[in-house]
Amino acid sequence: MTMLRDNVDEILDILKSEKIILYPTDTVWGIGCDSLSQEAYERIFALKGRPVNKSAILLVDSLDMLKNYVIRIHPKLENLLVHHQKPLTIIYNNPTNLPSHVLAEDGSVALRICNEPFCQSIISRLGNPLVSTSANVSNRPTPSFFGEIDSDILGGVDYVCKYRRQDKKSYLPSSIIKLTEDDELLFIRD
What we know:
The chain contains six helices and nine strands. It is an alpha/beta fold and 190 residues long. It is globular, with a radius of gyration of 16 Å.
């Protein structure tokens, strides 16, 4: 599979125009937008039928990018980020440099370093986090590959990536961890 089938410049133009895309991540297919666009963010939640107070995950392309949005990465977490086999989303308290619309009600944010090369390329060129939420209507099963995505989702986005559409491999959601105020790791989803 090659990532040359999608024009990354076109995807960036779409994202910068406050529109939403359907794209493959290092886990399941995601609906996403530029994290700076509140309008696009709200459209995603309307499409999913999901309350906006249930925040989405933000994808970054590297540990360096992640450090722009968190005050401190606890050594336990940095070690996990380097050695964890499964994609790992971490909920951080008191993030920085992020618009309020992407934060949870308690002010936290879920961030993941995405290790999928196509997705990394988009994030890197965008220069800020990419919103990611599973490509399903709320309370319906999360599709494990492109062919399982509901037609309502396909028709509701502004751009559907071509990359990995033919891939039949099942992907699972990431593990989710929160670092508590007492510096303990709380596994929310393994």
